[in-house]
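Not sure how to ask, but would you mind making up any protein sequence you like and the tokens describing how it folds?
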Amino acid sequence: MPENLHPHPGLILKCRLREKGIPFFDLGERVDFDENKLKDVIDMKRPMCLLLCEKLSRFFGDELSFWIKLQINYELSLVAYETSYPKDIEIDPMQSPLPDRFG
């Protein structure tokens, strides 16, 4: 992914959990949120819904807007990225270089 994309909120959540030494399944129990959905957010496979934003803001003591803005900024940066390249150019993904590191 390009460097100018905002991070997925799941990545921020993953970092916060790592800092506090909390496994995601413990968080799911503590905030009463489905662990599978939570794992999908952390794995960046699902957007962060408003309900999860509310629960995380209470759990971490953040403003609700913090989590909401993370999701909105991520989505807006995706749209900006996707619309910044011409659609008529075909790119062979097998010819694209691999990233330097995997995360």
User: Anything to note?
Assistant: DSSP finds five helices and no strands in the chain. The two ends are 11 Å apart (CA to CA). Residues 57 and 66 are 8 Å apart (CA to CA). The helical segments are 9-20, 24-31, 35-42, 50-60, 64-82.
